[in-house]
Amino acid sequence: MVVAPDTVKMDAVALQKVKILFEEQIDEGLHPGAILAVYRHGNLVLDLHGGIASQETATSVQADSMFVLFSSTKAITAACLHILWERGMLSWDDTVAQHWPDFAKNNKDQITIRHILSHQGGFPETPSELTWRKWLDWEAVVAAMENITPEFAPGQVMAYHPRNYGWMIGELVRRIDGRTFDKFLREEITAPLGMNDTYVGMPEELESRVAKLHAMEDCDRPGMVTTYNHPEVHQAVQPAGGGIATARDLARFYAMMGAGGTLDGVQIMKPDTLREVTQLQVSGLDHTLAQHMQRSLGLVLADKRMGASDDEGNRTFGHGGAGTSIGWADPESGLALAFITNGFRSNQTNSPRLEAISLAVRKACR
Questions:
Q1: What angle do the packed helices 347-363 and 12-27 form, to 10 degrees?
Q2: In the predicted model, is pLDDT for residue 205 greater than 80?
Q3: Residue 256, H or E segment
Q4: Which residues of 214-226 are buried (b: 16+ CB within 10 A; e: fewer)?
Q5: Phi-psi category of residue 286: left, alpha or beta, with phi > 0 → left and psi -120 to 50 → alpha
Q6: Side-chain half-sphere of 37: how many Cα atoms within 13 Å?
Q7: Helix (H) or strand (E) holding 215
Q8: What is the residue-averaged pLDDT of the chain?
Q9: How many CA atoms are closer than 13 Å to the CA of 281, on its beta-carbon side?
Q10: Cα–Cα distance between 43 and 328 in angstroms, integer?
Q11: Are 141 and 134 in contact, with CB atoms under 8 Å apart?
């Protein structure tokens, strides 16, 4: 339930400006449709939806519409390993092969869990045999990860792993805990938090609720749009970029993270764990993205898309999704936000629209 702005020390007029900006972006054609949710101090203060879910069928975005998260999935995926670390079931500097012996093939015996979470594992490219049609075959994915040969020595280069990151974490969860990744996620995070509209491996019968992706005029990766509109991709357990969710669910996840691991009396992690996993691990040029990045253990730190800077919000952590979305938490301000669009843009126009929303929300704080 959305609370009154005054109860969480937010300015109602400024929040109205956020709503106006949200609608203006749709009216200006930055994307066909979008959803936005904001928490402050553990309370939902804004929950917006608008625009077109599918231009082909002219259907509107509804209050329960779900959107493709792309790599905004990665933070939720990392949280599964955060939980296992808290329980003493792994150490960050464990080699992956300690838990998954066959992964050691092709000189991968020194790659650690820390390397995987911070994108320093050295094998960023998705194996060519893992086309989207193979994503439903988990054993084929596991075999591909075992057979891959690194491009870089572990720990030497930060190079974003768009998909391998998620498959690695998913199999580590299965090897260490015994449950499949989707079951662990459901039982340990989404169900306890009441995130009932979040899936990595969505049931087929919910497909009608998923907003279609649209390639905007400057889209530089139209193949991503085509691929991630396939229902089979929505059903696949693809923990790096295959999440499907509402903004209110994703913002709820970040509200928990920003509050030290507990929301509405439900503890997912301890405060010490959150402090551990949000510490800077690596900063510098990401060789995949060709831009400067700051990363902790599975999270991006103080990103401009989050309205963060050296002066404000520099403790902010979160993750974006390719060409479309952003989610973040700022423990200092008590804010948590999820903004997801269905219009895929290049970084040049995607980042400014996400930053504009994030900054407008920050300005509404008293």
A1: 160
A2: yes
A3: helix 247-258
A4: bbbeebeeeebbe
A5: beta
A6: 26
A7: strand 214-215
A8: 97
A9: 25
A10: 15
A11: yes
**Phi-psi category of residue 178: left, alpha or beta, with phi > 0 → left and psi -120 to 50 → alpha:** left
Within 10 angstroms of residue 165's Cβ, the number of other Cβ atoms is 26
Q: pLDDT grade, residue 310 (50/70/90)?
A: low
Radius of gyration of the chain (CA): 19
CA distance 266 to 263: 5
Q: Which residues contact 42 (CB under 8 A, 6 or more apart)?
A: 255, 259, 263, 264, 334
**Residue 277 in contact with residue 353, Cβ under 8 Å?**
no
pLDDT (average), residues 62-73: 98
How is residue 268 annotated by DSSP? Answer: S
Rounded CA-CA distance 278/263 in Å is: 18
Cα separation, 201 vs 207, whole angstroms: 11
Q: Locate 261 and state its tokens.
A: 């691991």
Angle between helices 138-147 and 164-177 (to 10 degrees): 110
C-alpha to C-alpha distances, 215 to 5, 241, 327, 350, nearest whole angstrom: 35, 17, 21, 12
Which amino acid would we find at residue 323? G
Q: What is the pLDDT of residue 55?
A: 94
Q: Is the pTM of this model over 0.85?
A: yes
